[in-house]
C-alpha cells in the first residue's frame, strides 16, 4: 500500500452516538462508508469526508423502540441498487432501511427476544440470531424458516459463500452449521458463550468467545487453530479481505490485529467494552465502544490523524480508569490463562475417529452410500468418506452378491409372496409413467408437461387377495388379546372391496372401527393393516372419518409413530403412502396442511435409509405438499418444502425419487419469484445440475432442464 506506515494508528474519532456503539458494518453506498448502531436507539450512516481524514454523518435512522444491537447490509438488487440496511434491536424487531431515508422501509417481526446478530446472503436473504435461542431466515419481508437447536441465546450468525450454508454461534458454547434449514454439524470446543463469527473462505471461518479465545475451523468440523491474546471476553471478530488475517475486540479495552496467526499489534482504547469492529475495503479498521465513540484506525500515512488528535487520544487513554479489583481481566484469573507456548499450538481435531464403530455391510450395497450413511449415523467427519468406502471395497473383494433384489421381501416367509404395498403391476415399475400408469414415456418435443402439478399423486395398485392372506396368516400367530375375530376379518375384506371399487357397497362405521383396531397392532405384524389403510383412505368416507375433526390427531400421531428412523422399512413405506393418499380428499388435504410442520419434520427422518421405495414415497409426499402449496400463498410452507427437497436430494439415488423431487421443486417455484429466490439461496440449482446429463429415463433430464430454466 502506498504510504503504508506498518502499524495502525488513529485516523479519526467520530462523535454522534449518545450511548454504547454496539454494531458496525461496512456499507455498499456511499463507497468507503459504514453504518453504526447504538444503545441510543439509532443507526447512523457515515460517509468519508473528502476534505480531511474523517467521516461525516450522512443519516441518523430511527425505528426501534429500544436499543439497537446489530446491523448488516443487504446487497444491491434491481429494486434497491444501493442496497438496504438491516438493524436488530432489543424490541425484538428488525428494521429495514434504504440508504436515503431515515424511517424504516418495513419492519420484520417474529423473534420473541432481542435480535443480536444479522447476516445477509445472495438473492436478498437475511439471517438473524436472537436471545430467544433461534435463528430465522428472511426473504424480503417474510420469514422463510426458523432454525431451532440451540439451547441458549444465538449471539452470532453468518451466511457462508456456498449457497444454503449458514452458521450460528450461541451462549450454549456451540456453533452449528445449517444447510437448507437443517443442522448438519455442531462444533464444540469453546468453553463459554460464542460471541462472534467471521468468514475466511468457503471452507473456513473464525469464532470468538467469552472464553477469551479465537478459533479457526473448517466447515467439515476440524478446529485448525486456537488463538490466545485477549484477557477477557472477546465480543467481535472481523476478517481482512482475501487473506486469513483478522481483528478482534473485547472487554479488555483492546483492539487486536492478528497477522499470520500472531497478535502483531494491540491498541488500547479509553472504554471498558470495545463491542464491535469491522475492516473496510482499504484495510482501515472501525471500532465501536461503550463510551459511544467510533474510532477508525489506519496504516496509511496519508489518512493518519494529526499530531494534535493523536495526542488528545493518548491523553484520554491515560485518564481512563481501570477497575482496581480486576484490572482489565474481569472475572478471569490471569494465572489460569494459557501461556505463549499456545501460540504455536496447531489446534486440535475437534471431530475425530476415536472409539471403534460397527460398520454393517451387505455385499449388494453401494460401498459409497454405506460409507456416507455410516459417517452420518455416527456424526463423523465427511472427510473420511473415501477412506471408509475404500475400507469396505478392500475387505469385500471376491465376494459375490447373495441377492441383488432391492424390493422388499416378506419379513416372515421370504421373497415371492406378499410384498407390502405391491401388486402384479408395481407402483414403481421403471417402465411405467409415475403419474398415469401408462407405458414408458416417450418424449416428442421439449414441452413442459411436468409442472406445475395440479393434483396429488397416489399409490393405488394392490393385490387385495395377497394382503388379506398375509393379514390372516399374521392374525393366527398374534397374541390372544390382539387377535381379530373371524367376523373382523370378513369386515376388513368387505372394506377392502368397497374401497378398491370391487363392490358397490359403501364403507361402514363398523368397518372403519375394525380397521382402526388392526392398525394398532404391534409394529412387527401391522404392515398388512397399514396396506389396507393406504388403500381405504382414498375413499371419501374413510378419509373424512380418519382426517375429520374428531379423531384426526390420534390418526396422524399413529402414522408418525411408524416414521421412526429405527423402525421397520415396511411400516415406514406404508405410512408414507397412506399420508400421500390422504391428499385425495378435502378432509385429508386440510389435516395434512394443518399438521405440515410436524409431518414433514418427522417424515424427513427416514431419508437416511437405503430403501428406494421409501425414498420414492417420501418424494411423493413432498410433491403432494408442493401441489397444495402452489395453490396458496404460503411462503413459509414452501420454504420448508424447499428445505426438504434440498436435504433429500443429497441422499436419494433412485431416479424415480429424484424425478418426483424435481416435479415438486418445479411446482413450488412456478409463478412465485420469492420461491425462486429462496431456492437459489439454498443452492438447489447447483444440487440438481448433474441430472441434466441423465440419459434414461429421459423425463429426469427434461424436467431438470425446465426447473433450471426457472432458476
Describe the protein in words.
It comes from Meleagris gallopavo. It holds the Pfam family PFU. Residues 311-406 form the PFU domain. With 711 residues, this protein is an alpha+beta fold. Among the domains are: 9-320, YVTN repeat-like/Quinoprotein amine dehydrogenase (Methylamine Dehydrogenase, Chain H); 464-637, Leucine-rich Repeat Variant (Alpha Horseshoe), CATH 1.25.10. Helix content is 29%, strand content 24%. The protein has a four-stranded antiparallel sheet. A four-stranded antiparallel sheet has the order 2-3-4-5, with no helix packed on it. Strands 6-7-8-9 form a four-stranded antiparallel sheet, with no helix packed on it. A hairpin with a 4-residue loop joins strand 10 and strand 11. The longest helix is centred in the last third of the chain and has 20 residues, at 612-631. The model is unreliable at 323-332, 342-355, 400-416, 423-432 and 439-444 (pLDDT under 50).
Amino acid at each position: 500500500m502506498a504510504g503504508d506506515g506498518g502499524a495502525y494508528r488513529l485516523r479519526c474519532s467520530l462523535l454522534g452516538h449518545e450511548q454504547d456503539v454496539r454494531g458496525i458494518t461496512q456499507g455498499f453506498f456511499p463507497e468507503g462508508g459504514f453504518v453504526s448502531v447504538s444503545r441510543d436507539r439509532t443507526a447512523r450512516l457515515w460517509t468519508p469526508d473528502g476534505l480531511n481524514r474523517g467521516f461525516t454523518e450522512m443519516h441518523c435512522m430511527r425505528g426501534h423502540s429500544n436499543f439497537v444491537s446489530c446491523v448488516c447490509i443487504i446487497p444491491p438488487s434491481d429494486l434497491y441498487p444501493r442496497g438496504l440496511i438491516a438493524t436488530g434491536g432489543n424490541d425484538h424487531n428488525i428494521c429495514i432501511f434504504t440508504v436515503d431515508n431515515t424511517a424504516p422501509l418495513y419492519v420484520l417481526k417474529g423473534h420473541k427476544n432481542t435480535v443480536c446478530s444479522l447476516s445477509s446472503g445472495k438473492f436478498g436473504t437475511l439471517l438473524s440470531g436472537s436471545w430467544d435461542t433461534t435463528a430465522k431466515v428472511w426473504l424480503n419481508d417474510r420469514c422463510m424458516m426458523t432454525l431451532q437447536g440451540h439451547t441458549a441465546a444465538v449471539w452470532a450468525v453468518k451466511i457462508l459463500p456456498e449457497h444454503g450454508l449458514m452458521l450460528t454461534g450461541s451462549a450454549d458454547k456451540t456453533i452449528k452449521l445449517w444447510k437448507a434449514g437443517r443442522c448438519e454439524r455442531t462444533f464444540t470446543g469453546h468453553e463459554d458463550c460464542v460471541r462472534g463469527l467471521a468468514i475466511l473462505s468457503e471452507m473456513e471461518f473464525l469464532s470468538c468467545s467469552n472464553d477469551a479465545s479465537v478459533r479457526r475451523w473448517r466447515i467439515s468440523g476440524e478446529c485448525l487453530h486456537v488463538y490466545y491474546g485477549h484477557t477477557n471476553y472477546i465480543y467481535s471478530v472481523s476478517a481482512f479481505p482475501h487473506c486469513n488475517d483478522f481483528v478482534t475486540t473485547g472487554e479488555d479495552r483492546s483492539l487486536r490485529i492478528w497477522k499470520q496467526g500472531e497478535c502483531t499489534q494491540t491498541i488500547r482504547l479509553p472504554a471498558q467494552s470495545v463491542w464491535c469492529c469491522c475492516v473496510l475495503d482499504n484495510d482501515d479498521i472501525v471500532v465501536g465502544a461503550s463510551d459511544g465513540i467510533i474510532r477508525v484506525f489506519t496504516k496509511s500515512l496519508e489518512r493518519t490523524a494529526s499530531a494534535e488528535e493523536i495526542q488528545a487520544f493518548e491523553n484520554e487513554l491515560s485518564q481512563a480508569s481501570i477497575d482496581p479489583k480486576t484490572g482489565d481481566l474481569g472475572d478471569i484469573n490471569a494465572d489460569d490463562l494459557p501461556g505463549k507456548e499456545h501460540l504455536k499450538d496447531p489446534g486440535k481435531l475437534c471431530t475425530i475417529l476415536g472409539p471403534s464403530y460397527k460398520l454393517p455391510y451387505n455385499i449388494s450395497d453401494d460401498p459409497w452410500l454405506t460409507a456416507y450413511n455410516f459417517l452420518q449415523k455416527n456424526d463423523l467427519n465427511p472427510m473420511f468418506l473415501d477412506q471408509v468406502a475404500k475400507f469396505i471395497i478392500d475387505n469385500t473383494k471376491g465376494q459375490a452378491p447373495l441377492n441383488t433384489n432391492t424390493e422388499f421381501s416378506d419379513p416372515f416367509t421370504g421373497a415371492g409372496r406378499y410384498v407390502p404395498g405391491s401388486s402384479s403391476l408395481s407402483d414403481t415399475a421403471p417402465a411405467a409413467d409415475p403419474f398415469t400408469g401408462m407405458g414408458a414415456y416417450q418424449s416428442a418435443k421439449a414441452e413442459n408437461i411436468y409442472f406445475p402439478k395440479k393434483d396429488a399423486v397416489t399409490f393405488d395398485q394392490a393385490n387385495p387377495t395377497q394382503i388379506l392372506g398375509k393379514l390372516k396368516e399374521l392374525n393366527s400367530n398374534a397374541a390372544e388379546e390382539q387377535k381379530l375375530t373371524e367376523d373382523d376379518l370378513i369386515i376388513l375384506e368387505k372394506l377392502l372391496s368397497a374401497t378398491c371399487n370391487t363392490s358397490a357397497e359403501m364403507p361402514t362405521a363398523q368397518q372403519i372401527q375394525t380397521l382402526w383396531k388392526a392398525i394398532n397392532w404391534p409394529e412387527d405384524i401391522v404392515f398388512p393393516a397399514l396396506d389396507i389403510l393406504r388403500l381405504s383412505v382414498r375413499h371419501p368416507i374413510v378419509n373424512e372419518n380418519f382426517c375429520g375433526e374428531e379423531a384426526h390427531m390420534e390418526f396422524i400421531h399413529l402414522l408418525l409413530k411408524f416414521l421412526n428412523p429405527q423402525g421397520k422399512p415396511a411400516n415406514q413405506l406404508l405410512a408414507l403412502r397412506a399420508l400421500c393418499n390422504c391428499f385425495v380428499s378435502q378432509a385429508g388435504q386440510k389435516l395434512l396442511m394443518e399438521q405440515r410442520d410436524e409431518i414433514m419434520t418427522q417424515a424427513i427422518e427416514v431419508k437416511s435409509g437405503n430403501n428406494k421405495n421409501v425414498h420414492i414415497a417420501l418424494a411423493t409426499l413432498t410433491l403432494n405438499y408442493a401441489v397444495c402449496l402452489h395453490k396458496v400463498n404460503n411462503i413459509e410452507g414452501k420454504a420448508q418444502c424447499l428445505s426438504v427437497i434440498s436435504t433429500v436430494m443429497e441422499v436419494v439415488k433412485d431416479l424415480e425419487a429424484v424425478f418426483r423431487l424435481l416435479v415438486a421443486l418445479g411446482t413450488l417455484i412456478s409463478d412465485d419469484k420469492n420461491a425462486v429466490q429462496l431456492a437459489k439461496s439454498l443452492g438447489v440449482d447447483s444440487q440438481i445440475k448433474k441430472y441434466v446429463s441423465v440419459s434414461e429415463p429421459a423425463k429426469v433430464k427434461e424436467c431438470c432442464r425446465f426447473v433450471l430454466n426457472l432458476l
